Amino acid sequence: MAIQAETRIDSNRLPQHVDTLLQVRTGKIKPVFTISERSAIFKTALTAPVKVGTLGCDGDEQAFKAHGGPDKALMQYASQHYALWKEEIPQNAHLFTLGGFGENLLASNMSETTVCIGDIYRLGNELLIQVSEPRAPCYKLNHRFELKDMSLRSQSLNRTGWYYRVLSEGMLEAGDEIFLVERKYPQWTIANVQKFLYKDTRNEEAMKELSYLPELGSETRTLFLNRLTKNLFKDDSGRLRGGEGEALPWTPYKLVEKRRETPRISSFIFKATIPSELVTDVKPGSHIRVKLGKDGKLVRAYSVVGGDSNRIELGVAFDKELSRGGSRYLHENVNIGDELQFGVIKSDFPLQQSADAHILIAGGIGITAFFATAKHLQEKGMDFHLYYAIRSLEDLALSRYLDPLSEHLTILDGSKGQRLDIPKILGKAKTGTHVYACGPDRLMSAITSTAEALSFPSSNIHFEAFTASTSGDPFEAELQSSGKVLEVKEEQTLLDVLREAGLEIGSSCEVGNCGTCKVTVCKGNVDHRGTGLMESEKADSMLSCVSRGIGRITIDF
Predict the structure, then answer these.
(1) Above 60 in pLDDT, residue 148?
(2) pLDDT (tens digit, 9 = 90+) per residue, 448-495?
(3) Alpha-carbon distance 522 to 524, whole Å?
(4) Which residues of 25-62 are buried (b: 16+ CB within 10 A; e: fewer)?
(5) Which of 114-123, 241-250, 421-430 has the lowest mean pLDDT?
(6) Which pLDDT does position 35 carry in this prediction?
(7) Order of strands, edge to edge, in the sheet holding 541-543?
(8) Is-above-0.85 flag for pTM?
(9) Measured between alpha carbons, how far is 463 from 61 in angstroms, rounded to an integer?
(10) What is the C-alpha to C-alpha distance for residues 404 and 357, in angstroms, rounded to an integer?
(11) Is 405 helix (H, G, I), strand (E, B) or coil?
(12) Which of 26, 319, 435, 513 is the most buried (most CB within 10 A)?
């Protein structure tokens, strides 16, 4: 079991050395978790000194106004807690790395039980900071650690971290010694304040003292004062569970059926271990992320063939030459009764509601992207046609979903010389028709070049790749914020390397479709791959899951 060390303080012998700074971290506001969610929780460890002013470290940002200000200039989190979290939540152990709670400061020994309100610490030669208040964990921790109740766990266990105000500005860097200069309130440790914040909430004696404790941060002091003078007890549920509708939790599903559809393709039916009362139907263009591999670190996204949020059917092809490990693991290692962790069903390839007609073009396993779409179009009585190109009838997968489509379906058997006639298909398309394609790169290229030749509007063409070419020449990626240089080998992706370096980059499809993993390119040339960026974005951005730098590039996020 992990043990938290504590430093004994003799108030009569101050200043006293109490700890050493392990890391200083800063971060920028960016979209995370979901497209609409913004946060600066993903911070990067600095390798050079940074100036600290009354509002915190230079270059550090907060997406939510209440997360910043003079009373919250710096946030520290106890590094010892990470070992405890890994021990208690082993399925998500890989997420509990230093910096995971969005802290600015990390040290070896300090914790909520050894740090007191009003404590003044000296770091380096000139910087003086004072402990102001406990951190109030919010719902973004639920997203960050992929647990619905992570913020509540953090609060209940007093593993929240704490804030400082800056009394004297100065420089700060990893390795600085931390000296306790003054301790006025040894009875008011962060943990003890939290006891009256969240547990013994109606203790009037504590309310009176904390309401008028001048060194206590104004937010926390006002909370106690409102309880004391107005009998107003704030509801924490919004802070702890807010944004729940957009959260991306991982939910256990058990494999209940596995069927070989073709020599290369198998179907998998998973049922939720604990069925939800709120059932979500599969929408057109839906996919879902699943954790694979022995330790669950291999995350892949697959099109959802059918079902709902309690029962998911996938169709997955296994190609020994192209597999990056996910399809191999599903085909060779996952058996009936095995349990896997799934995300939520998302649609990043939806139908265009303004279209007058819809043309669906699938190559090989790309058909899985269109089963739900074709079913929806047929049920709504909409104008559509599905073209499905296969090598031979031996490769015809999941025909039970195709049979009801009748006149809306054309199957092209390559072994009989049947080919997709892209010029003919696009040439006879009516005005207002939208085209959706999923298949190999050569199919996408053929549609793009033909559309250009026929002046078919590019805004009416939509692609989804079912695989992606990610390998290539090795390159180097320099992190603008720290100057650190990461090497990306031939078979690695930039996304993989960034994650191995402890940097958390959002992602969803991981085949270059959705754009979630976009990073900023500050300098250098990029071999752009995937369809998740507009042409105008390629000048200063790249998809870290598929695109590759040329030589050395400098990036930021």
Answers:
(1) yes
(2) 899 999 999 888 988 876 555 667 788 999 998 888 899 998 878 898
(3) 7
(4) bbbbebebbbeebebbbbbbbbeeebebeebbbeebbb
(5) 241-250
(6) 43
(7) 485-488, 475-479, 548-556, 518-527, 541-543
(8) no
(9) 35
(10) 19
(11) helix
(12) 513
